[in-house]
Write a structure and sequence with these properties.
Chain A is an all-beta fold and about 110 residues long. Chain A contains no helices and 9 strands. Chain B has about 110 residues and is mainly β. In chain B, strand 4 and strand 5 form a beta hairpin. Chain B is built from no helices and 11 strands. The chains are: A mainly beta (about 110), B mainly beta (about 110).
């Protein structure tokens, strides 16, 4: 899997959009960008993933640059409950391979302030 | 919504005890995984299963075994608990190919005294 780089920490005001960047300059053509988050002492929660098009679901939006070397996770209206460590990972998703285990880097600690 | 549940959120055991951690998923997923998560070491895969009664070792299987008698349930067994098995244990499941999106349970924080 390609390596990712994320800021160690970020702050966001409650009700504002939180924009979390991720660099993955060595991403290859068959690797997806995945985002998970982990609230303190809980299991990781899947947020969203994408290959090259922007994606949106009920939790967040994922913006991937045209060259796919970086992406941004957007939480449109952050709440206090969004305070968590956010992990950006890139991984191959296709049948028959052996790349099944997940590995998280250090992630970004997002603190949403009242 | 995918629901993965784990039998306990917190568990305290003594050295040498046999420990059972249970995981149940309600989405008919073929694949189930057991990880442990430790500060500074990140996620590490212990065992996984791609079908009933099938299991494969992950990166750190020593001291653990697993059981998958039914599709929805995947158990992690610590044969003789040791203090270095104090950790957060995470179960995950996914459908289809092994590389598909994994959904995690809430985790079990195990303390071995």
């Amino acid at each position: 899997d390609a390596k990712t780089t994320q800021p160690t920490s970020m702050d966001c005001a409650e009700g504002r959009a939180a924009n979390l960047p991720c660099n993955h300059s060595t991403i290859s053509g068959n690797e997806y960008v995945y985002w998970y988050r982990q609230i303190h002492s809980q299991g990781p929660q899947y947020i969203i993933h994408g290959l090259k098009n922007n994606e949106t679901n009920e939790m967040a939006s994922l913006i991937i640059t045209e060259d796919r070397k970086s992406s941004t996770l957007i939480l449109p209206h952050a709440t206090l409950r969004d305070t968590a460590v956010y992990y950006c990972i890139v991984r191959v998703v296709w049948s028959g391979g052996s790349n099944y285990k997940l590995t998280f880097g250090k992630g970004t600690l997002l603190t949403v302030n009242p | 919504d995918v629901k993965v549940t784990q039998s306990s959120r917190y568990l305290v055991k003594r050295t040498g005890e046999k420990v059972f951690l249970e995981c149940v998923q309600d989405m008919d997923h073929e694949n189930m995984f057991w990880y442990r998560q430790d500060p500074g070491l990140g996620l590490r895969l212990i065992y996984f299963s791609y079908d009933v009664k099938m299991k494969e070792k992950g990166d750190i299987p020593e001291g653990y075994s697993v059981s998958r008698e039914k599709k929805e349930r995947f158990s992690l067994i610590l044969e003789s608990a040791s203090t270095n098995q104090t950790s957060m244990y995470l179960c995950a499941s996914s459908s289809g190919s092994m590389q598909e999106t994994q959904y995690f349970g809430p985790g079990t924080r195990l303390l071995v005294l």
